[in-house]
Automatic annotation (TrEMBL):
The lineage of its organism: Bacteria, Pseudomonadati, Bacteroidota, Cytophagia, Cytophagales. This is FMN dependent NADH:quinone oxidoreductase. Binds 1 FMN per subunit. Belongs to the azoreductase type 1 family. It comes from the Bacteria. It comes from Spirosoma flavum.
Length: 197
């Protein structure tokens, strides 16, 4: 099994990274010999899309200018990583009710017409099929239930955008309440105990 671990927390003590690592440990126990590729978008952020990136996406490889060829390299690289992976673990801290902008920038390089999805008469058809995704979502508050449940835009957004490129087999694991006294101490062990593959 080839596992891709996408990390987007910049914190060394990150809950989402530790939860992602917990998922990967279990995957490796169940699939000895698995490889792990780490893509840390917090340490190596992807550029926000500029005109040259969008032009490069819409230009055939043989017609790209040297600038466009440079610009498309980030996207080609991350798409190759996704294509090579059987299982993708995405760490997503909740930032201001959404995902970190670094993870959004990665997504903007991954979701590419004619490469990871195509338009058909019935809409968007994802081209990255047959892969398993685990989301390791961390949040200071609690969103799986209670008064803030309808404020979680992270899981619905990630599920929608991943489905658009064919990644429909998604399991969500949450380490939540990481800022809440009385909850934070047990938050990680509770999340780790919920991992079932
Ligand atoms: C910039 C920033 C924005 C945040 N926004 C929210 C938020 O909207 N809701 C929430 O529950 N927690 C929020 N938090 C808390 C984080 O979700 C929490 O600390 C989480 O554990 C961070 O993930 P990490 O431990 O993987 O770094 C925010 C934290 C930061 C640094």
């Amino acid at each position: 099994m080839n596992i891709l671990h996408v990390i987007s927390s910049p914190r060394s003590e990150s809950y989402s990274i530790r939860l992602g690592n917990g998922i990967i440990e279990k995957l490796q126990m169940a699939n000895p010999g698995s490889t792990v590729q780490v893509r840390n978008v917090a340490i190596h952020p992807f550029p926000h899309l500029e005109e040259v990136h969008i032009q490069s996406f819409h230009t055939s490889p043989e017609s790209r200018t040297p600038k466009q060829r440079m610009a498309v390299q980030h996207s080609d690289m991350v798409i190759r990583e996704l294509q090579a992976a059987d299982t993708i673990v995405i760490g997503a801290p909740l930032y201001n009710f959404g995902i970190p902008s670094t993870l959004k920038a990665w997504i903007d390089h991954v979701v590419r017409a004619r490469v990871t999805f195509r338009y058909t008469a019935s809409g968007m058809e994802g081209l990255l099929t047959g892969k398993k995704v685990y989301l390791a979502v961390s949040s200071g508050g609690i969103y799986s239930e209670g008064p803030w449940a309808d404020k979680d835009f992270v899981v619905p957004y990630l599920k929608a955008v991943l489905a658009g490129i064919g990644l429909t087999n998604v399991t969500v694991l949450r380490v939540e309440g990481t800022s809440m006294p009385g909850v934070q101490d047990q938050a990680l062990s509770k999340a780790l105990s919920c991992i079932s593959l």
